[in-house]
Amino acid sequence: MTVRYRDGIEIELSDGTRVVCDADHPDGDVNVVSHAHGDHWPESAVTAVCSPLTAALVRARRDVPFRRATDDRIDLRPAGHVAGSRAALVADPDGTRYLYTGDVCTRSRFYLDGFDPPSADVLIVEATYGEPSYGFPDHASVARDIRTWLAETPEPVILFGYALGRAQKLQLLARAADRERVLTTDAVRRVNEAIEAHRDVRFDAEPYDAETELRAGDALVLPMTSGRIDWVDRLADEAGAIKAGFSGWAVDDSFKFRGDYDVVFPLSDHCDFDELRSLVDAVDPTQVYTHHGSVASLATQLTDAGYDATALRQNQTSLGDF
Question: Residues with Cβ < 8 Å from 244, sequence gap 6 or more?
Fold first, then answer.
């Protein structure tokens, strides 16, 4: 067997089948898309194994021909990261079970169930927060703190979160805090509509455009990528709005200053370090590969704990290169 990080994560099965996960330009015999974040979906036309909701979200977010497929060798498991996200349990003809997580979260939150790790022989796990210093507070307490802050802040607030994932959670939290209006952009509303069509949840945000005037009590949810755009700063100054950032990186004080936020909260859609360690223990693999993030740190921690762990680096060509 061979596991490589090239354009995406490539798993070569014993019969020569190439399973390629989350590539920009997938060219595998079987292609897998774990979820509809921009760094995981394909840039070119492709047929891929994914959830029905991920397929709908990719079509809603990007004008690229995208066709959903299934494969008897690929068992998709809810990954708990964002709506539609899936981990892939890949069955090799020789009996080996590979588990590719993509981005993953074991905490249940809002309308998402946390990832329930199955057993596997080979685990290929993300390492976004693969440093021991990254630990998140209890999710319920974070959500409660956000609702309290939203309820007690009379000024208009601008809430920054990824268009798929935290933006939906922020809309729900703003509604729960009885903000006067919850507004968001067309890009976020397209994501809302795709999720609403597949899940029993409604966001009910009003449309925001350049003609909308922010007033006291409003909550405007914007994609995280718009946080440092000049018009957002002008909008905040003119409306007297408070800018808030939401991310697991908020456990690091520098996140607030890098994003030029007034307030931050550690609301994350990933596992923290201890949760990653618990995930690995639950899978109980004979081989672990870490990908994307603090790959070397997590692999070292796992090796120290007795696992055969390797950090995947892009464009390695064989196991001997690791």
Answer: 149, 157, 158, 159, 160, 261, 262, 263, 264, 265
* Cβ contact 194:164 at 8 Å: no
CA distance 67 to 176: 37
pTM for this model (two decimals):
0.94
Which element (helix H / strand E) includes 157? strand 157-161
Q: Which residues, in sequence order, are CB contacts of 43 under 8 Å at separation 6+?
A: 24, 25, 64
- Residues 104-141 have pLDDT tens digits of 999 999 999 999 999 999 999 999 999 999 999 999 99
User: What phi and psi values does residue 35 have, to the nearest 5 degrees?
Assistant: -165, 175
Q: Which domains does the chain have, with CATH numbers?
A: 2-133+270-321 (3.60.15.10), 139-265 (3.40.50.10710)
Alpha-carbon gap, residue 181 to 44, rounded angstroms:
38
Give every residue of the chain whose pLDDT is below 50, as ranges.
317-322
